[in-house]
Amino acid sequence: MKSKPFFFDLSLPQVEAHLQALGAERYRARQLWEGIYKNLAPSPKKISNLPENLREQLETTLTFSALTVQSTVSSRDGETEKYLLETQDEKAIEVVLMRYHRRHTACISTQIGCGMGCVFCATGQMGFKRNLSSGEIIEQVIRVARQLGTNGDRLSNIVFMGMGEPFQNYEASMDVIDRLNDPEGFNFGKRRFTISTVGLVPMIERFTQERRQANLAISLHAATNALRERLLPINRRYPLEALMPACRSYTVQSGRRITFEWALIQGVNDGDEQAAALADWVHRMNCHINIIPLNPTDGYEGKAANLDQVTRFQNALEQAGISTTIRVRRGIDIQAGCGQLAAEKQRNDSD
Fold this sequence. Notes:
The chain has 351 residues and is of the alpha/beta class.
């Protein structure tokens, strides 16, 4: 039996075509679109300005959810919530809601697992399963937005920093941004999105050429090829001599700042040598360094750098005139690091 189309996989013209096939007027598609994306209705049943018979037709011809909540956990401080979701093919993915002062950020997944193999990342330790569809990514955002709406809050930022490498699922990731940007739909500004990549140089170049307005972040973590290859195997394909010029070109052509993420690992990448090498690479680049004490995972023995070393590393960069932030680790008590709950579920399922 053929499965029903998934609403969040469809563009507005595709929704219009579907409703036209049902014999409905074209403007009804926009009513459905606004009902789901703007008013966050869970299904057509809750969209009162649609005729009852059309609501029934839509319920039987379209699917409005492809993800099932398996568990929800909240950190003790109440600032981080993590949702373990299951896809229709019974694979686990995660979305994290981080609450800051007057800001609410959703960290979403673009793949099931990840093929990049970053040694300290729980998702990388899972291996790659498949790409998520644009609809599966969008539904993560909509679920978080609905949750926030129960308390009168709204989503402030969306970061593609959950499970997977967004630039390996480029088309779907860009579709998500375009669709959620629709001013008559979810109306989420493109500059409130941030995409994080481990450094797929051809895709960074494409992103730059397309003049995308979303923010770009690079998971860097090391400033010498020998160390970066140990931590991020992708560096063997795209070494720093290729990656950093592509990043610099992005800042020049876009006129926008790029962020480099640096998971600070005790005794590995927290020393003066790495700080100095990093400063050399980003000299006079429009950039910001986001220093993140390592989130521990079961599959990696490294530990987070201590506070003194974090401060020393930051000071070395700032003395070189480089903008930095030390990002507070969130949700350690609920395994909020990328892929940790999904990896645990995968292990349990295989036992």
